[in-house]
Structures are given as C-alpha cells and as structure tokens.
C-alpha cells in the first residue's frame, strides 16, 4: 500500500488538542480544526486517489488527507458476547441472516446499503429477560478495561483531543428491537423498554467509572441515530421522562472530571430533542444532516452560547460542483468565526460527489 499523504498538513501554531478545545469553547484559534466524518464504501473503489494508493478505510483516509487527529476510547458497553450469526436464506443479490445482535436482516451482497430489518429475537419481556441475562451482564469479565495499556497509548501530554465514549441510551435499543419493534414496545411493553434503557446506562457507567479517574478527557461522545427526516422515532416525552434521567446520571459523572463538551451522533431532524439534550448535558450535535434538519447557522443562532455543531456541510451541495461549494461554504464562515462549530460533510461523503469536487471542497474549506 502506498499511503503517502496527498496533502500537506494544514499548519498552525496550536496543537490539534488546543485547537479543538478552544474552537469548541468559542475562543480564538490559529485556524479551523480540520476533520471529516468519512466516506461510503463505494468511494474507496470509485475515487482513483483511493484506489491507486490502496486506501480502504476511513482511518487510512484521515492519514492520507493529513486531517487533524481526534480519538475516543470507551469500554465494552453493548451486547457481549455477541450472538452467533446464521444464514437463513440467500439469492443472487441478497442474503438474509440472523445477525450477531439477534436481528433478522436482509442485506445486499454488493454495495453500501442499510439492511432491511425483518424482525428481532426480542419481542416480549420474556425474550428481553433471557437476552439480558446472557448478553448484557455488567459483571462479565471482558468488560474490565486494561487501563495501563490505554494510559500508555494516550498520555496526558498528547497533542490530540481525546474523548470518552458515553454510548447510547436508546439508539442501540432501537437497533435491538427494529424501528417497528421499538414503536410497538413503547405502548405494549413500556417497562421492558425502560429497563433496556437502564441497562444501557449501567453498562456506560461501568465503563466511565473505570476510565474517568485515569485521563484528562477533552470531550465526551455518544451515538443515538434516533431521528429521521420527520423528527425523532419516539415522542419527545419519552426522551424527557425515560432517556434524559439517564443522560443526567452520565453528565454528573463526566462533569465531576471536568468534561463540559458532550456530542452525540444523531442523524435526521433533531430539533424537537435539542432542549432535552441541552438540559441533560449533551451540548453538541454531530454530524448534523442539513437536508433533514436546517442550516447549522439557524440553530447556532437560536441557541447561541450553549449549542455546538460538528458537521453540517451539505453533501448535496458538494455534488453540484465548485460554484455551489463556494456558495455554501461562504455561509459557514461566520459560524466558524463565532466558534462552537467545526465544518465537515454532513455524514459519510457519498460517491456521487466527484473526486475533483471533493478536493476542491477541501481546498476551499482550508
């Protein structure tokens, strides 16, 4: 593999760690923190610069483009051990499996696509009780972290921002139940659903208690993906009454160790949840999909001084070429100047964006 960086590092007088912290706290910086969220699998096959240099992953692409480094660590905070994956049926184009998370999935054999979820092994409280006992035991020995190895790898004098993974309270529950399954469970089995959220929280707390005393973290991160283009999958009252109390427990722990920046990855229209997020401690949105929500400036102005955003560069505009790219990036300049905002493509960059247009975008962003 010939993974020589295609671009020289975008120089500055600060370390990536200093730059990230200052920018996300509305302070002056030498230049914008430079990062991207990644690419579809097809990009690695279709863009010549990736093919010819043997770039096959987002991690390799970050090095290839000399982006500012940003790292997060965390514990074993989901299903463990995983279930055994089994093939149920197969055709020329699709394969149906019971996944390692207990989902019945129909997958495309080639290309990037979210699977078609046909069902789950968790349908009733009895199913959840069994799965919880077998796969979500917080005392499972493999949930104990090797702290000495992690501190050696990420010393306090590092020059990059380090985050702690605060996991998912409800997004991974949705993954376990499917979209339809979680909607039915909200009304059919509300106690089961809340116990699933509580279980996710306990696993995260177990990880935080191991990590927090040994590191000076620069941010906390999470993953929910619990919204689509018409808003949250579950009603806001559920987040307020069931999810937010768990966020607050986590926030209390991380605040005790000086962490005051917490982003969660959530696609779709997050606007109904922003007041709940902010009240619970989550104060940064990532990767902020523009077309299912709004221009990032709208929310940064509405919640000035309290909300941050990472992402928000409209992928649809990247696909339209240089003039559209310039027009859109010009709207982001005041946001970067104000602080609390780091621009990058609003999710994985899709392959309909031409390689030359993507490179033009990176140049113009710098």
Structure explained in plain terms:
The protein is α/β, with parallel strands linked by helices and 366 residues long. The chain has 15 helices and 13 strands. The protein has helices at residues 16-24, 41-46, 48-52, 58-64, 125-135, 147-153, 171-177, 179-188, 190-211, 236-256, 274-280, 296-302, 315-318, 322-338, 355-365, and strands at 71-73, 86-90, 94-98, 103-108, 116-120, 162-165, 219-223, 227-228, 231-232, 262-265, 284-286, 308-310, 341-342. A seven-stranded parallel sheet has the order 1-6-7-10-11-12-13, with helices on both faces. Helix 9 packs parallel to helix 10 and helix 14 (322-338) packs parallel to helix 15. The chain is globular.
SSE blueprint:
Elements: H1 16-24, H2 41-46, H3 48-52, H4 58-64, E1 71-73, E2 86-90, E3 94-98, E4 103-108, E5 116-120, H5 125-135, H6 147-153, E6 162-165, H7 171-177, H8 179-188, H9 190-211, E7 219-223, E8 227-228, E9 231-232, H10 236-256, E10 262-265, H11 274-280, E11 284-286, H12 296-302, E12 308-310, H13 315-318, H14 322-338, E13 341-342, H15 355-365
Helix pairs in contact: 7-8, 9-10, 10-11, 14-15
What are the defining features of this structure?
about 375 residues, single chain, alpha/beta, 13 strands, about 40% helix, 7-stranded parallel sheet, 4-stranded antiparallel sheet
Based on CA inertia axes, which overall geometry fits?
A: globular
Number of helices, counting only DSSP H or I runs of 4 residues or more: 15
What about the largest sheet?
Answer: 7 strands, parallel
Helix percent reads 40-55%
| Class inferred from helices and paired strands | alpha/beta
- Separation of the first and last Cα atoms: 27 Å
């Amino acid at each position: 593999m010939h993974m020589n960086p295609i671009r020289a590092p975008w120089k500055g007088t600060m370390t990536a760690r200093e730059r990230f912290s200052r920018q996300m706290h509305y302070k002056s910086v030498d230049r914008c923190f430079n990062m991207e969220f990644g690419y579809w699998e097809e990009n690695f096959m279709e863009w010549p610069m990736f093919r010819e240099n043997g770039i096959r992953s987002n991690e390799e692409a970050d090095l290839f483009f000399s982006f500012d480094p940003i790292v997060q660590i965390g514990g074993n905070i989901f299903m463990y051990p995983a279930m055994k994956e089994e093939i149920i049926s197969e055709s020329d184009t699709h394969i149906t499996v019971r996944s390692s998370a207990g989902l019945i999935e129909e997958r495309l054999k080639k290309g990037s696509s979210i699977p078609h979820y046909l069902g789950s092994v968790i349908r009733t409280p009895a199913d959840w009780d069994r799965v919880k006992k077998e796969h979500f035991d917080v005392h499972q020995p493999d949930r104990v972290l090797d702290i000495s190895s992690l501190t050696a790898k990420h010393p306090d004098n590092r020059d990059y921002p380090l985050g702690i993974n605060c996991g998912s309270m409800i997004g991974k529950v949705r993954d376990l139940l499917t979209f339809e399954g979680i909607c039915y469970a909200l009304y059919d089995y509300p106690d089961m659903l809340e116990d699933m959220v509580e279980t996710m929280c306990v696993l995260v707390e177990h990880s935080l208690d191991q990590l927090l005393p040994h590191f000076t973290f620069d941010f906390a991160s999470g993953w929910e993906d619990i919204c689509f283009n018409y808003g949250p999958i579950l009603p806001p009252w559920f987040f307020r009454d069931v999810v937010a109390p768990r966020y607050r427990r986590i926030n209390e722990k991380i605040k005790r160790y000086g962490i005051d920046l917490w982003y969660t990855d959530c696609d779709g229209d997050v606007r109904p949840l922003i007041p709940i997020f902010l009240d619970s401690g989550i104060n940064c949105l990532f990767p902020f999909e523009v077309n299912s929500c709004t221009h990032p400036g709208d929310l940064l102005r509405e919640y000035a001084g309290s909300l941050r955003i990472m992402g928000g560069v409209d992928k649809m505009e990247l696909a339209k070429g240089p003039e559209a790219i310039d027009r859109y990036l010009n709207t982001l300049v005041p946001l970067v100047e104000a602080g609390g905002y780091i621009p990058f493509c609003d999710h994985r960059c899709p392959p309909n964006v031409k390689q030359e247009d993507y490179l033009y975008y990176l140049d113009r962003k710098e």
